[in-house]
Amino acid sequence: METIRNPRVMQQTVREYLQRGHSIGFVPTMGALHDGHMSLVQRCREENDVSVVSIFVNPIQFGPSEDFNRYPRDTEDDVAKLAEAGVDILFMPGVEEMYPEGFATYVEVEHLSDRLCGRFRPGHFRGVATVVTKLLNIVRPARAYFGRKDYQQALIIRQLVRDLDIDTETVVCPTVREPDGLAMSSRNTYLSPRERKAAAVIYKALCRAKEEVLSANGTFAEARVLMEGCLSAEPLVDEVEYASVFDPETLEDICSRDVTIYDKGTVLLAAAVRIGRARLIDNELVDITGRQGSRRS
Ligand code: PAF
To answer: Residue 291: its pLDDT value, please?
Structure first.
């Protein structure tokens, strides 16, 4: 595996691969790699001639009081995992290379960035959209891979790729879960053993809500109540930032809508909670087309 730190060298290397007719697959990450990341890497390797993974903890997507400084970093372990997985190129730029003095251009995806996590992390998606645009311009992949756990992020990236005419397919891959259902995340390492056990409540809450929206008389409003109730009943959950039912395309909260006249076919159940030092998110996309019956109220 070749490691490249300089964006210009990365661009030159990519140019050579493209001239030879190779397709490039790309997995952008912030490192601290777990099996969720590795599932993206595997898919990337299967579908492309050359696989590129980036590790860059992007300072501009963290708020001033967020965890940029303590975000887990384990480059040695990451490099070993990527080499073992057969990745061709690791792109690992420094902050000064990505944001040199005088950097002044940002990418903002309107509307989608203001909802769900955007309400609690102002500026976060502007930072994500900016760095992903830069990375896609540098790597010029045919396909870029993202996890569904970060559903809102993937939707925003899909939108910016479309709006800015970037010639890359956005591939969104399933969430990888621990045996108790907790979605894999680099931030799970912030949890103490007790908190880690308690964190399984997030997936449990999503499953309860899923049962509700799929049941013949279920309502979106009740699904939200069940989710919030389940999360708040766990003593180690310090805060429920949001837990509701959303339109999977617009991210509009639809918990007050009548399920029997909702015509999109799929709903997004999503939650964000704080447990100890960790802010954790998760979601489930639920196909409700097979649901029968009428709503309860
Ligand atoms: O999901 C992440 O790890 C990051 O938000 C990303 C997409 C690599 C941008 O920094």
So the answer is: 81
Among 22, 37, 111, 124, the active-site one is 37
* pLDDT at residue number 118: 98
In short, whether 128's Cβ falls inside 6 Å of ligand 1 is yes
Contacts of 32 (CB under 8 A, 6+ apart): 71, 72, 73, 74, 78, 186, 189
Give the residue, by CA position, lying nearest to ligand 1 atom 1.
29
Q: 25-70 pLDDT, tens per residue?
A: 999 999 999 999 999 999 999 999 999 999 999 999 999 999 999 9
The contacts found for 208-215 with CB under 8 angstroms, 24 or more apart, are 209/243, 209/245, 209/269, 209/284, 210/269, 210/284, 210/286, 213/245, 213/259, 213/267, 213/269, 213/286, 213/288, 213/291, 214/286, 214/288, 214/290, 214/291, 215/291
Reported pTM: 0.97
| Contact 29 CB / ligand 1 (< 6 Å) | yes
Query: Rounded to an integer, what distance in angstroms lies between the CA atom of residue 62 and that of residue 69?
Result: 10
Contact yes or no for 136/11 (Cβ under 8 A): no
- Domains of the chain, first to last: 2-173 (3.40.50.620), 186-296 (3.30.1300.10)
- 121: Cβ below 6 Å to ligand 1? no
Q: Is 37 a catalytic site residue?
A: yes
How far is C-alpha 178 from the chain's CA centre? 17
The Cα 25–Cα 30 span in angstroms is 17
Q: Are 273 and 237 in contact (CB under 8 A)?
A: yes
Q: Are 105 and 29 in contact (CB under 8 A)?
A: no
Six token digits for residue 253: 């909260």
